[in-house]
């Protein structure tokens, strides 16, 4: 076990914490408030943000879409440059935050913004970012990753840099109160798969990381079961659990998979499938396919997360329990339901994986395009 | 649940990580290496530190004792001022790190160093600190607390400041290889009680914090059971578990107790009892005394940590399980064994608690001097 880890993002957690913005952003900063489709104007979050920025000079950029596109974000980058913005405040969920990270990095680059996805531009600096989280799911509020879509080429790809890790994040569970059920479900599933990508991997015996991951998985199961009895405590527990699922800690020093994400991203890029739902489609088939490597950890998950008894088919029963969890949330796990009757759906995905260089996925680099094809066939 | 939390200390974890010192300390810094009695010269840690500092200008201060004293630390403070030191590197366990924090803060103060304990001097700044941890126990390597003893008055007291949180900490499990068994046991018990102080408190339902705390407690139980089969993995798991026990995370937004620590400190100040052993003496009696407030959480601990079945006396059986854990490590839990035949031992402790203003201890401020007297009587 070897790693270097820190998470310096200051978390302001709890009801009423949006007011912390005021003292968290330097008084002389020129702030751009970035948000999505305007739901924050209906649930009171926008008004609280505006009130908290009363001492600051600020402007705004709205219209960041789910699966934020380079095309939209380029407009924000132009605004940042034109207005000499030096602080970005993302108010939203993972899409707004990821988009803001892209803006923060690309605004300091003279060339095309996509260069930071291709790696032609190395992100060493970025405009500082603050976050007001409205949808617990991606953990983006305190990590250093972002995923962006280029509509022109149907590509959904990510980048990582410590420079885009938010300086602070407000996690006020009240901001979730008006979320549609579908988005809450997506958040539960997204956080669940984030934990799995860092947990269902080959070696065992990292007592802290594995123990914490099991806590988060049990929490998500329990929160799923309590879905129809949502209250303040439920929202607080989901918001903190989803943050922990991808803040770097449970993955520190662990082999990590992320193949479910890489393949799932192509479903979103091709057919606009919700991110979380793309993961639910790919994951069970991938786990069955990679049993050779993952059996011990899947069995551990069966025992410690689902409370299953030992048996020869424990791994298969564990995967079925994962599918039952998705089903209990009314999340489909069939690829054909989203790809429609396109007979060439699988080949389209394989083509894109190859184009993006994702030809050796998984913690053991065993998921070649041929294996991806097997997984996708199983997922139909 | 409401809190603000971040832990910016960069952890370099794993075998061979001591070399990270070289790039973690600014090249132009004037470094003071601070350590204890010289065990690091026998186990190779000192040599690795020296090799890693080959590009730096540095000097050293040795002789920081267990339960570091103001009297010793004042000499280091004088050296820091005389040599214009601007970076401190603590190489040791909790005592060396706590002592280094005291030095780091007091070296920027013109008056008497003890002013930062009394609060007459507010610690807003400190010389930056790096750590090479050799004894996992206190979590001091990534938190903002320190406890120091003034020999002249037999006082053992602490202070907290974000300014003294280490910038980085190297956690190389190999550094523990030559530790005496007694110190390893102390580390296990110290980390155990740290978790308990943040976990066995009144409300329940903080799913992340409580779940993580239970992971750490189960880890420590298991590591205790494997004590005679110690290997690389054992050391790595203990080192990371003990860090997590007091890095602020499991306590974020939780009511916290710390009465066991406050009373235990007096045993150390009066009779030089090892810190961990002072905690083992006080804790069981305190839990029985405060059952009115702590019953629900003690029962939860019984179920989730010790795997006990429900029963009317579940709380008592849980406390007995804690005592059995201490006994399995050959740690005494009787006060009379350390205070000797002093008939006035309890009154001596009460006097000191009152002198230090510790007259309303515990998460509900219910532990008055009279209650402390009851607890100490039970602990005899």
From TrEMBL, chains A, B:
It comes from Vibrio hangzhouensis. It comes from the Bacteria. Belongs to the iron-containing alcohol dehydrogenase family. This is NADP-dependent alcohol dehydrogenase. One of its GO terms (cellular component) is cytosol. Residues 186-345 form the Fe-containing alcohol dehydrogenase-like C-terminal domain. Keywords: Oxidoreductase. PANTHER family: ALCOHOL DEHYDROGENASE YQHD (PTHR43633). The keyword Oxidoreductase applies. Residues 8-173 form the Alcohol dehydrogenase iron-type/glycerol dehydrogenase GldA domain. Pfam families: ADH_Fe_C (PF25137), Fe-ADH (PF00465). The keyword Oxidoreductase applies. GO terms for molecular function: alcohol dehydrogenase (NADP+) activity; butanol dehydrogenase (NAD+) activity; metal ion binding; methylglyoxal reductase (NADPH) (acetol producing) activity. Gene3D superfamilies: 3.40.50.1970, Dehydroquinate synthase-like - alpha domain. Its cofactor is Fe cation. InterPro entries: ADH_Fe/GldA, ADH_Fe_C, BDH-like.
